[in-house]
Amino acid sequence: MVAAGSVLCLLVLVPPRAAQAQARLDAQYEASLAGIPVGKGTWAVEIGDDQYGASAQGGTAGLLKSFSQGSGSGAAQGRVVNGALVGQSYQASTTAGKKSEQIHINLLNGNVKDFGIEPEPPVDPNRIPVTDAHKRGVLDPMTASLVRVPGNGELFAPESCRGAAPVFDGRMRYELKLDYKRMENVKADKGYRGPALVCAVYFTPIAGYIPDRPVIKYLAQARNMEIFLVPIAGTRVLVPFKMVIPTPLGTAMLEATSFVTQATPHVAKTQ
Question: How far apart are alpha carbons 191 and 140 in whole angstroms?
C-alpha cells in the first residue's frame, strides 16, 4: 500500500524545462500493485502564452478501497516567462479515513515565499529540519511534472531525460535525477499511442524526512525505478505516461488509461 502511494506521488517528480505552444492534456491513470488495482486518478494540464495551470486528483480503488478509503488532489499555477514555467502557487489536499491534510506553497522566482500544513504536524526530533537554504531554487511537485525538450532536434533524444531537479513539496526537500534507459511504444485505451522515452529515476532525500522510515530508505536505494515520458500534442513538452517501481510486495505501477492531448490554436492579442 505504501509502495502504491509512492507511485502516485512520484507521478509529479520530474524536472521541468520550458513550455512552447498553447496546448491541453486530459488524462486518466490507474495504479496497481502486483497487478491488483489500488487507485485511480485524473490529470489536466493547460499551457498558454503567458500562464499555465495543472491539476490532479485521485483515490483508492479495487482491493485497497476495501481496507482503506483515501483520496487526494493537487493544483499549481504559474507564469510562462521567456518559455520557462515559473511556479507561483501549489496546493495539495489528502484524506485517509477520518484524517485530512492541506498543504500550500507560494513561490517567487523559484524561492518559497511561504508555505504551510494544516493541521500542523507534530514536531519529530528525528526529522531532518528544512532550512531557508533548502527553500531557495526549488520546484513545486506539480510544476515539476513537465519536461520540455529544448531546441528543434529530436524530441526523444537520450539528452531529453538527463538532469536533476530540486523539489520541495511543503514537507520534504529532495532531488530527482533522470537518466536515459531506452525507447518503448505505449498505447492508452483512449488517446495517445506511440513512442515513449523511458528514463531511470533516482531519488535523493535532502531535508524534511525521517531517515529511519523504510519507504525513504527503499526509494533512496532503488536503482530500478522507471518513468515513461510522452509529448503533449503540438509542443515539445513531455509528461509522464507510466511509472514503474519494483517493490518487495510486487511491482507498483501507475499508467495512463486515457491520454488525450490537443494543441490550442494561437490567437493573436489585439489592443
Answer: 28
79, 53 contact by CB (below 8 A) = no
Q: How many CA atoms lie within 13 A of 81 on its CB side?
A: 8
Residues 58 and 85 sit within 8 Å (Cβ to Cβ): no
Amino acid at 54: A
- Which residues are paired to 163 by β-bridges? 178
pTM of the model: 0.86
Integer CA distances (angstroms), 152 to 22, 187, 211, 236, 250, in order: 17, 25, 43, 9, 40
Helix axes 2-10, 214-221, angle to 10 degrees: 50
For residues 248 and 234, give the distance between their C-alpha atoms in angstroms, rounded to a whole number.
40
Cβ proximity of 41 and 31 under 8 Å: yes
Whole-number pLDDT of residue 48: 83
Report whether 114 contacts 107 (CB < 8 A).
no
User: Are residues 163 and 177 in contact, defined by beta-carbon separation less than 8 angstroms?
Assistant: yes
Beta bridge partners of 116: 104
For residue 6, the number of C-alpha atoms closer than 13 Å in the C-beta half-sphere is 22
84 CB-near residues (< 8 Å, 6+ apart): 17, 18, 19
Q: How far is CA 5 from CA 61, 100, 120, in A?
A: 12, 15, 21
The pLDDT tens digits for 112-140 are 999 999 999 999 999 999 999 999 999 99
